[in-house]
Structure formats: C-alpha cells, structure tokens
Design a protein that fits this description.
This protein has 354 residues and is mainly alpha-helical. The protein is built from 12 helices and 7 strands. β2 and β3 form a beta hairpin. α2 packs antiparallel against α4, α3 crosses α4 and α9 crosses α11.
Amino acid sequence: MLFEPLSQVERNELLFLVTDEQKEYLLNQVKRGRRTIFGNIMIEEKVQAIKSVDIDLQEDERNIEDWDIVDYVDFGPGNRLGKCACGITLRYMFTVQHKGTNKTITYGKDHLSAFLNLPIKDIDAVMAGLKTIDYELDELLVKIRDDDYGYEIVAEIPEEIELPKNIKEHVEHHIPLLNRQIKKIEREVNKYYTKELEKVKNEQREAERVEAAKRAQTYLKAREILRERNELEQKEKHARDQKILESTRHLLVSPNPTIAEIAYSLVLNGVSSANEISRITREYFHVDKRLSTGTLQRSYIYMDVVLALMNEAENGTLYFDKESSGIDDCYFYPSEEKLEINTTSTNNVQPSLF
C-alpha cells in the first residue's frame, strides 16, 4: 500500500487518534532517528572546523565537538515560516546548540553547510534521511487510523525464523509494521521455504516426504498472501492513476498532446513531482517508454518534463518550489497556489511535532 506524505496539520490530527503508548513510542523513535542522523554527520570525520556565520562566537565556543544539531523543522511546500540567523525566511530550518553555553542558532541548509564547513551535498543527504523518518511516521499513523497492522504475515512465519528486534518492538507496542519491514519478512520467508522445497526433493523416507509436503503447503499459502498483497498495491496505484488521467485528459485539447502539454495538465491536477509526472506520461501516453541507465533509474523523458515545466514557471503560469527540489526530483505547483501560500497568515500554521 502506497502513502502520500502528510502535512503537519494532518500529522497532528492523526496523533490524536493513537493511544498514549503508541504516541510515546512513535515520537521517541522519530527523535532517536534524528539524533542518529545528526550524530553521524558530526562524528564521521567530515566536520573538521566551524565558521562563524552571521553570529559572533566566543573563544570557548569555537570547538566543533561542543556543538550539536538538536532540531529540524520542515514547514511544508511554499511555507517560509522559519528564520535564519542572517534574517532570511526559511522552509527548512536547522537548530544548532552549544553543549556548554546552550547558545542556539537557527540556520537554513546553505548557512548550516557554511557553519559546519561541509559541502552542501552532505546537508542534502541529511535532509533526505530526515524525510525518510518523517515519511515512515506518516505511514504508521495512516495504518493505525486504517487498522492495518500487517500482523497476519507474522503469524505465517516459521519458528525457525528469528524476527528482527525492531519488528518485535512494533508488535510489543502495538505499532503497525512498516512496508519495508513486511518486505523484509517476505524475503526471509521466501528464502526459508526455498531451502525447504530443496529438502523435499532430497528426502527419501516416506515419513519425511509427508512432513516436507506439509511445509511446502504452508509455503504456498504464505506465497499466496504475498501475491494478494502485491496485487492490491498495483490495483490501488492503477486506480489513483486513472483518477488523475480522467481529469487530466479533459484539459488536453489535442488528440496527440506534447510532453509539455501533458506535464502542465498533470501539475494543474495536483501532481507536483517531476518524477511522478514522467512516470505517468511514460506509462499512459504514446511517448518514449525507456528508462535511464543511471543509478536513479527514472524515465528517459524526465529532463524534457523538467525543462517544459521550467518554461511554464518562467512565464508565471507555474510555481517552481526551489527549496523542495534537488538532484532527485523537482516540484511544481499552479501559480495560484503560490499566491495563496504567500498571503496565508502565520497564525493559521500548526506548530511542528517538536
């Protein structure tokens, strides 16, 4: 089952639906994950020195080992509610704190990069890890709301397979299994029963053959559960695509629209990711079907889509979200949304989780 990232408002609303035990576990896991990411970048021998950026540092505040990254807030697409030490407004805001003096400084990713004397790509890597943590929190909240815990696959695991500690913790605290945890169990079950099926071929005694056949039957049942789950995911994805296509085709005048026309229409129908626009265009329209041979393995037409939408952004018909975009993906929104975001009162913005 696929999940769309939640807004801060949606996330806070779903947190009201969980039990106190679930809420404590979820928020502690997020904090623990963030501390790990912040800690790794500080101790991997990458950070050698700090630079004073828009803040005067005392002599005893210049040792890099005395500084920690203690918080990170993403205010959401188009929302620049954070503030850097230099005075500019920010969507992404990091807070660094001195262990001795407790001095705190807020920076955007550019000035954080300068402060830690690191390439900007290292800060981008930190942000990618933080987005993964937030996305998994969203996935768990949606699953709790939908009562989709995924424990049925745990019941099918043979006793010989030891569950990983993080999966046991989820079950003990009544937390749903993440999709990645379910896929890990699927891989382990498949490996186990593949070996078991090999044993069936080599067992000679009749009693052993009967017992092996029972295990094989269990294996087939487990595979059927996995197959049904995968089919459900594909159906949900196809249904979502069809809904988008139905509204998109109403905007396309030409029977043979160009990539630029398709991409622009998809943005108007709520698809902001250039990667997702490229996938939908590649799968459902008569365009180049190839995938790139690079590590990202995205649609061959991705750059054509980005260039077309950039032209629309330059003409003022679309809004290019520069802060959210990077080497992995680019995001575009209808220009009206930009106007709406810029005129929204900060009093209506929900506070972050932390």
